[in-house]
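Cross-posting from the modeling subforum.

Setting up a comparison between two proteins and wanted a second pair of eyes on the formatting. Protein 1 (sequence, then structure tokens):
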Amino acid sequence: MLTWDTFGTWAKRAVDWSTRYHKGLRERPVRPRVEPGSVQAQIPATAPESPESMQAIMDDFERIIVPNMTHWQHPRFFAYFPANAAPVSILAEQMASALAAQCMLWQTSPAATELETAMMVWLRQALGLGEQFSGVIQDSASSATLSAVLMMRNKALDMRSNQTGLAAGPQLRVYCSQEVHSSVDKAMWVAGLGQDNLVKLPSKGPLRSMDPEALSAAIAADRAAGHKPAGVIICTGATSIGASDDVGAIVAVAKREGLLTHLDAAWAGSAMICPEFRDLWLGVEGVDSLVFNPHKWLGAQFDCSVQFVRSPELLVETLGIQPEYLKTRGKSGIVNYSEWSVPLGRRFRALKLWFLLRAHGLEDLRRRIRNHVAWSCDLAERLRAEPDFEITSEPILSLFSFRYRPQAAVQAGTDLDALNLALVEAINDDGRIYLTQSKLDGQSVIRFQAGQFEMEEQDKDLAYQAILDCARAVPVA
């Protein structure tokens, strides 16, 4: 049994293990070759009745858990989007875990609340956003998007939806492009609006942007049909290929129609600390809500998602609830961030942002993001020069997609979708890098996204070689 008398010894061993783990990640395969159920089969079916030794627990951790994990902190993790954990962020999380505070109200954690307020100002300034925005740390972009949809719902129903529900009201409609993340769909489910009332509009152009004219037409058609438009979800750097809407043009339509807007920049938003990338979200000053995830590309440990809102009053009126036991007596001018989010309980997430921004400074974080973008663009050009590959979507920041299309396979009538999926599996089984697939214009493509905090240029070079090696080994006919 671990007590405070022995905690220090085992904490030191855990820190030493963590250091060895991160320094040795390049020697591990990024994704394990493991069959479903094989890990659970090694876990006893019932919990122990008596205490077990920490040595036995740690031995099993290293034997059962670590070899069967996908290593998200691996410098050659090029799948999905990164979920980074800078060393200083890990340290801050350890301190926050030791404090084990519930940061739901100012009075339950004064320093945590006021540090969160300060960090939101720091990040707002770093992103080049105006003072019209106030910020809050949510657990993930899914929660931020849900809160935005709930604000849309509440405003569209004259702030009565929490009291009266939806049954007696009109069908509320929310608009987005076909490129948005599935968290938007889920927000519609959870908010009670329903999948059928999420109107997905066609995208166009190299950035796969939502068509503003199609948006205007859809709003008009819904009003004519007796529906009630409620809001628009905009995206900057969508998950599949980085699709990005014309923020200014969409905001202009929404304002003309009296609709709230929410910008999902969960991944790409971090890059906006670099002024040269802000063209990607021109018009951002006009949105009503936006989200970006420092836990993706800035190095903050998951979970840490930042939502900025133009009207915190609307957010609080939508999500705030004050039973007698949650009221703070005798204090004025305080913020209770639990009223800005769906959960009541809140972790001390601001601490890792404070540690991170101070230990690295914005310029080091900009350097890393600029490197990721440059390295991704270089890899795209090297693959473009290969006769058997085509670039299917140009780099948007550090994300692009490609397709394996060898002439021999084309001549043989090979199913190129199946071939590309086979290539993804071969690459991931090889273990040197980790990639994921997507669909673009109905065809299977392979995504590459650079963003892991400790990535170096050599990792991009190895990715190029691994892709070519695995492609040459995959049968084409």
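Protein 2 (same layout):
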Amino acid sequence: MRKFLQSIFTKPAITLANRLSSRPDKKRVDEALSDLYDQIKANHTRKGPMLPFNAATDKFIVFSDQHKGARDGADVFTRSAQNYLSALDYYNRNGFFYINLGDSEELWENLFITVKRHNKTTFEAEKMFIARKAFIKIFGNHDLYWDNDPLAAAGLQTIYGQKVEINEGVVLKTTVGKKSLEIYMTHGHQGDLQSDGNWFSKWFVSDIWGPFQAYLRINPNTPANNNELKSDHNRIMYEWSSKRENILLITGHTHQPVFRSLTQLESLFEKLGIAKQNNDTAKAAELQVKIEALHLKASRPPDFKGYLDTYFNSGCCCFDDGDITGIEIADNCIRLIKWKYGQGKKSERTILEECPLANLKLNQ
């Protein structure tokens, strides 16, 4: 019966979830991003720290949107858990600083005590970074509990064995060549009318969508999220970042990986345009095949002239095939990476996109 209902309801359920998941208001998004950035710059430490770093020697990994749950049919993190643990082991052994960009715990659908009980191994893995003082935890809309519940601090201490600060954002500051560069990070739900503390959304997710999803075992986070043009929310956040000087913005929230302001599909179109300009017919044909495989429903290729490299999105750690994506900052470069299951279900790290920080096109 479940399989029959899955065949009927999976597609419309995912369409409905995508429609209800985001309703960004440009004015609210702009004001929220600006206000948080200004408060961090003004040293309002409760909002988040300013961290100077050396782009040549310091290393950061940014993951978001695990949505750890109860390991039941509604837990979209279940298939990705082993990739996440393998990734954290790799980054801890290699001396990375871990920035957890929010929605790490699914506290709209689950009680805190339930999430704690079923995710002990992931919390232990995160504790490795805390022990090295190399961990920042930022809250999102689905784990807003960490910021607004009076018992949250005690709950975090029971998870991690020590006090852990909760932040709304962080700004990394460095120098590339002779120019300053700031990397501003926050979850990205701010200004989203469906997510920014909206009681109706929380009720719908916990009382309607959660049980329905649990029974049908539907995960709306498909890798096809890579294969589209930017969502409205990502586009609005790009527009905010493109107006700032020498600033990169990194968010999560939308579950759609973005690198240098482009999704995977948009990046393919950009590369196709370059190949055609260079009369590289073989490369152009190869890229055209990749684009057609993504089944884009558009009458003509989008125009990316004038785009700056100011916006990045870490994607998520709960794709329905078990893949996870994130952003690395290391070795004077920024990278979009994916961890996926290879032969024998062994986790493998793949670099999807990479760019030297010095080569980014910024508003200066």
